[in-house]
Structures are given as structure tokens and as C-alpha cells.
Amino acid sequence: MSFAARLKSFLGIEIKAAPSLAEASGYYFDLFGASPTLAGVTVTPYSAMTCAPVACAVRSISEAAGSLPLHVYKRLPDGGKEKATDHPLYKLLHDAPNSFAPAALFRTQLMADALLQPYGGFAQIVRVDSKPYELLRLDPRLSSIVVDYSNFEPLYVIKADGKNSAREIPAADILHIPTPAYDPTRGLVGEGREAIALALVLERHASRLFGNAARPSGVLSLKGNMTPDALKNAKLAWQASQGGDNAGGTAVVPADASWQALTFNSVDSQFLEMRTYAVAEIARLFRVPLHMLMQVDRAQPRSVEAIGQEFLSQALLPRLKSFEQELELKLLTPEERKQYCIEFNIDGFARADLLARAQALSAAVSARILNPNEARQIGFGLPAYTGGDVFENFNTSSAHAGGKLNGAADDQEPA
To answer: Which residue of 34, 126, 253, 273 lies most exposed, with the fewest beta carbons within 10 A?
Structure first.
């Protein structure tokens, strides 16, 4: 035993040998960021985004998170809440987290990182006088983030690409939007790499197929003994007249040649079904409804509203809740968390449907949940008008202006 080995044994330092190259444990593949798949392609967060269904699923969730308003609310004694626009965090979260990125772009990119990258998405909290001053997204292309859970409390180590130096950042200064994967070291893309690889292989196969003027529609046979040069010239002449943009034109066959048409076999006829299956697998991986991936070739037994609610409750809300709680944990002190909360306003989804928005606000005003001025501001961004702060139902005679529900002595209109 060498002196270095004896010293490590005396100090209690455990020595572990790296697995050999012959061992199929995936150690070296994970180390260098290349996970093998049965389909024979390498799947990374960046190659996964070249797959149209994956890109559509990620954008459906991340862009929705970026478009929803994010507010800081103050808790009221009666159990309600109101916007805390005077809180220092309000502009940081609602308007812009720093001087070069708007809030919508920041949230979109951070949510996309959480869906694609190992461990999730990260942003550094820059503090001035122990108060959050700005939020900086840590781009995974520029720096690699490793999370150590060996001591239960996460330890964040950041290493810039191309540099040997690494720096540790306290957990209190890191916004960590976790990946929904069961194994955070692999991420959602790593766990679902086989399904993504299948879709990639099918897309590449279709591209090669149609890039060569689809599959051969037949076989051109030449009679007699042909020299290699004659076969080569015949092939080049046929491709020049029938390949690329000339495909599908009229073919002229020499007298000593014959043409035999080819038909599609059972594997070819099932290719489209395989692509449909691959899209459905990716929808399951990201838990988004199939119609969100633009797969609408089948009739849906439910209404569009029900499917939209399914996307909101199953795909989006879990991601938004983890986002909200991470912001509250890292940006608010324990004392502030008793008085304030940070929440997305999911009512922003109704803004896309003018009729649904108007009907919902009308019902809220009629039930005296909102007054007209509040409804105007929430639904349409319109200014308040005089008399619009009264909570009353204009459709009933017992709640007219000046009636007993508004503080008058009786239920009669003033003269």
C-alpha cells in the first residue's frame, strides 16, 4: 500500500474506483452528457428541443407560465388579500427581474429549464443590504449547476464552462425551480429519453425519405450485360430526370429497359401510426393534453373547455405552485411570509375569451363579489367611474343605489 493510500485510510477518506469502460452502467455516458438510447440517438435537452412534439409541450407550459401575471399580495385580517404594489418585490416579479430581461421572458426561460435540464431551472438572487435587488437566470449553456443532496440540505456548486474554477452559492441565494422528474440528476428529458428518441428517429427517417424524393416508386431494369460505367450513367440520367423537383414527371424508358412499380408494405402503412404513438408518448411524459401538441386527428369526447381545464389543473398548476413556493421561500423572510404571499393570477387564461370573461365578471358583480370598478379593472383594464365602488345587484330592486344594502334607512329610491 502506498503512502498516499495509507494516509487516506488513516484519515477515513473513502476511495472508490470508477467503473471500467466495459461496464454498462452508463457512468461515462452520464459524465460526458451523452445518454445512450435503444433507438441509437443521443438525447440531450438541446437535441430534445429539435423534436417538434417536445418543443410544443415545453412551450405550452413555459409560455403559459410567462404570460400569466405574477403578483405579491398582502394578507388581510378578514382572510382576503390585496395587491401589495408598494412592496419592493412587486416590480421585481411583475415588471422586470433585472435591467435586461422582462419578467415574462425570465419566467418562460426558467420554466423551460425546469422541464428540460437536470435538477431544474436556476436563478441567482443578487442582494443589496440583504434585500433582493435583482434576479439573474443561470443559463445552462454557460455554466453547469450541480446540486449535492448528501447532507439533506441542497448545496449548489456552479462551474463555468471552459473553466476549472467552481464556486459555491448559498441555497438562500439560489432560486431553484425543481424538475418534475423522479430522479433530479437525470431530469425529465433523461427519464423520457427513449420516448423522445423514438420521435427523433421517426422524424429523421421521414426527412431522409422525402429528401430523396420519397421512396422509390419502382425499379428500372436494364437488359443485357451492362458495364459499371453504363449502369452509373443510366442511374445519373434517371435521377436527373426523376429526382428532386422533377419527381412525379413523365418518365421515358429506353427500349432495352423495363419498369416495375413498387407498392407500400405493411411497415410503410404503419409509419404514420408510429409517429402518432410517439407524439402521444411525449404528451404523457409532460402531462399535457394531446390537442396541445396539435394532435387533433381524433374526435375528443370532451369539450374544449374541459380539456383546457385539464391542462390547467394537471400540467400547469403543479409547476406554478412549485414556482410560487420557491419565490416565497427565498425572497420573503419568515416574518414577511405571515403577511405576504406570491401567486400567479390564473384568471389571465380567461382574457383570451372575451365572452367568457365578460360573463364571469358580470356574475361576480351581480353576486356582489366584485363591484363594477373592480370588474372593469380586472377584466378590461378600464379606469374607475363615479359610483362604481358600490356593491349591488342592478338586476334586483332591493339593491338599487340608495337602498338598504348600501346604507340607506329604507329600501326606497331618494326623491
So the answer is: 273
How many other CB atoms are found less than 10 A from the CB of residue 378?
18
Are the CB atoms for 315 and 65 separated by under 8 Å?
no
Q: What cell numbers appear for 166 in the block?
A: 467552481
Within 10 angstroms of residue 46's Cβ, the number of other Cβ atoms is: 13
Q: For residue 260, what pLDDT is reported?
A: 67
Q: Cell 399580495 identifies what position?
A: 73
Q: How far apart are CA 377 and CA 150, in angstroms?
A: 49
Separation of alpha carbons 221 and 253, rounded Å? 10
SS3 143: strand
How many CA atoms does the CB half-sphere of 375 hold within 13 Å?
A: 21
Tell me the per-residue pLDDT of 229-279, one tens digit each, with 9 for 90 and over: 877 777 777 666 666 565 655 556 665 667 666 565 545 557 777 888 889
Alpha-carbon separation of residue 19 from 22, 134, 301 (angstroms): 8, 43, 52
User: All 3 cell numbers of residue 191?
Assistant: 427519464
Q: What is the dihedral of CA 357, 362, 364, 370, to 10 degrees?
A: 100
Q: Dig out the grid coordinates for 261 from the structure.
A: 412499380
What secondary structure, in 3-state letters, does 78-100 show? CCCEEECCCCHHHHHHHCCCCCC
Residue in this structure with the C-alpha cell 416574518, named with its chain if needed: 335
The pTM score is 0.71
Q: CA separation (Å) from 399 to 201, 360, 406?
A: 66, 20, 7
| CA–centroid distance for 322 within its chain | 14
Distance CA 43, CA 109 (A): 20
C-alpha distances out from residue 286 to 53, 77, 186, 195, 269, Å? 10, 39, 15, 11, 28
Confidence of residue 64 (pLDDT cuts 50, 70, 90): very high
Helices 52-67 and 193-211, axial angle in degrees (round to 10)? 120
CA 86-136-31 angle, to 5 degrees, is 145
Q: Which three three-digit cell numbers place residue 216?
A: 422509390
Q: 64 phi and psi, to 5 degrees?
A: -65, -40
Residue (of 87, 93, 61) closest to 74 by Cα position = 87
User: At residue 25, what is the residue type?
Assistant: S
What is the Cα–Cα distance from 42 to 35, expressed in whole angstroms?
Answer: 6
The whole-number average pLDDT for the span 373-392 is: 83
